[in-house]
């Protein structure tokens, strides 16, 4: 992961374009979005302000974020505790730059979303890596304690988890919360997939666990809530002292983000439950479609509890290739792009798992399944 200069997502999407491949690699939907949210943004572009909004975000969006989490997750955040950023990526950058000082240790769980490690390193932090292992990727007390020391300043945690599709349960979250409290560490909780959960699961924010709200930075993104990944509107929610530090970093990273998009996201966050339930049902159908097609083609599909992704165990599918070789061949020779999960480990990688994005139209999924069948 550390030797590659370009992220695996850009690398694979570039190869997919070059080889006219079906792209089940990078996580973005190839179907529509809520028209009313886009219309709101268009109207705001024509009639709203096109000048700098306030540095911490449009008041309407900060209020909408606080209200949204009160309604969906029973969190009691105040608008003042919300900082609007240019996507979750900037939220991560601002938070890590704000809280991690040179020499501070930061615990990361592998496989990890690709931005975490470079951001910790750029802040001068020392990454400590714990390792989740396939096929169940379970967060146990042993895994959690792998990286904690007396110098641990923060933990970057992602739930629901990209790339594994895990939604960590209450027992796993309680173990992590207990460790953060015992080691007096801040939790940077990347919850961008919070609404994309299946089979009746409900998202449990880490900050809802006893003793955690005062030490958690919760990160969200409109990209995943509205299938508008290019919009790059995200936010942090954190108690006042942490929010102050985050805003301090944010003001010199991007200062602010497009006001029209912020206004449309504020509108969208107030949508009724039917929208969120409909979205989950649509993605669950796509997940089931891809999983059934892959099983029929002889692939061993691991359970996907949330996110746009499912993982396939190549070894258990009877494929002797490592994940990188399989993915490089699949995109060049069979015309289908996937993500090799070893690219999301910095050490001791699992080399037998690939990640596929199912947030696609039925035709795209069908074409992807046929090409993966050929890639075996
Ligand atoms: N964190 C995780 C776990 C993600 O999966 C993503 C994007 N897929 C991001 C952060 C980045 O989100 P954004 O596009 O809002 O920057
Ligand atoms: N988060 C997306 C994914 O996991 C990709 C985002 C990106 O390309 N930086 O596929």
| Uncertain spans | none
**Biggest beta-sheet profile:** 7 strands, mixed
Order of helices and strands: HEHHEHEHEHEHEEHEHHHEEHEEEH
Overall tally of domains: 2
Protein name: Aminotransferase
Cofactor: pyridoxal 5'-phosphate
GO molecular function: kynurenine-oxoglutarate transaminase activity; pyridoxal phosphate binding
GO cellular component, one term: cytoplasm
Structural write-up:
The chain is an alpha/beta fold and 376 residues long. It has a 7-stranded mixed beta sheet with strand order 2-8-7-6-5-3-4, sandwiched between helices. A 4-stranded antiparallel beta sheet has the order 9-10-13-12. Helix 7 links the parallel strand 5 and strand 6. The mean pLDDT is 97. The protein binds 4'-deoxy-4'-aminopyridoxal-5'-phosphate and glutamine.
Gist of the model:
Belongs to the class-I pyridoxal-phosphate-dependent aminotransferase family. The protein has 376 residues and is α/β, with parallel strands linked by helices.
Characteristic terms for this protein:
4-stranded antiparallel beta sheet; alpha/beta; Aspartate Aminotransferase, domain 1; single chain; Aspartate Aminotransferase, domain 2; 7-stranded mixed beta sheet
Describe the protein's topology:
Blueprint: H1 8-18, E1 22-23, H2 35-47, H3 59-73, E2 82-85, H4 87-99, E3 105-110, H5 116-122, E4 126-131, H6 141-145, E5 152-158, H7 170-182, E6 186-190, E7 216-221, H8 222-225, E8 234-237, H9 240-250, H10 259-269, H11 273-296, E9 300-301, E10 309-313, H12 323-334, E11 336-337, E12 339-340, E13 353-357, H13 362-375
Parallel strand pairs: 1-11, 3-4, 3-5, 5-6, 6-7
Antiparallel strand pairs: 2-8, 7-8, 9-10, 10-13, 12-13
Helix pairs in contact: 2-10, 3-10, 4-5, 4-9, 11-13, 12-13
């Amino acid at each position: 992961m550390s030797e590659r200069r370009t992220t695996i997502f850009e690398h694979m999407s570039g190869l997919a374009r070059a080889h006219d491949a079906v792209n089940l690699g990078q996580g973005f939907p190839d179907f529509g979005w809520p028209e009313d949210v886009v219309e709101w943004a268009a109207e705001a572009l024509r009639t709203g302000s096109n000048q700098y909004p306030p540095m911490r975000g449009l008041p309407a969006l900060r209020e909408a974020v606080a209200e949204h989490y009160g309604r969906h997750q029973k969190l009691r955040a105040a608008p003042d505790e919300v900082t609007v950023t240019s996507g979750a990526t900037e939220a991560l950058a601002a938070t890590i730059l704000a809280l991690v000082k040179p020499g501070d240790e930061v615990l990361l769980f592998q496989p990890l979303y690709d931005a975490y490690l470079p951001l910790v390193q750029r802040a001068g932090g020392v990454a400590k890596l714990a390792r989740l292992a396939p096929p169940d990727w379970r967060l146990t007390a042993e895994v959690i304690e792998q990286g904690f020391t007396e110098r641990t300043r923060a933990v970057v945690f992602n739930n629901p988890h990209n790339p594994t599709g895990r939604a960590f349960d209450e027992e796993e979250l309680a173990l992590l919360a207990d460790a953060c409290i015992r080691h007096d560490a801040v939790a940077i909780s990347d919850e961008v997939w919070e609404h994309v959960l299946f089979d009746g699961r409900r998202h449990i924010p880490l900050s809802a666990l006893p003793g955690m709200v005062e030490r958690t930075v919760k990160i969200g993104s409109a990209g995943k809530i509205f299938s508008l990944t290019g919009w790059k509107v995200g936010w942090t929610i954190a108690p006042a002292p942490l929010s102050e530090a985050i805003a301090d970093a944010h003001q010199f990273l991007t200062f602010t983000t497009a006001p029209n998009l912020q206004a449309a996201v504020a509108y969208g966050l107030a949508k009724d439950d039917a929208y969120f339930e409909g979205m989950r049902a649509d993605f669950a159908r796509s997940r089931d479609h891809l999983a059934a097609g892959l099983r029929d083609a002889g692939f061993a599909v691991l359970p996907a509890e949330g996110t746009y992704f499912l993982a396939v165990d190549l070894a258990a599918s009877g494929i002797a290739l490592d994940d990188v070789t399989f993915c490089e061949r699949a995109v060049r020779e069979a015309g289908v792009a996937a993500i090799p999960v070893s690219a999301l480990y910095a050490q001791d990688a699992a080399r037998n798992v690939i990640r596929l994005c199912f947030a696609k139209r039925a035709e795209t999924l069908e074409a992807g399944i046929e090409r993966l069948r050929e890639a075996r």
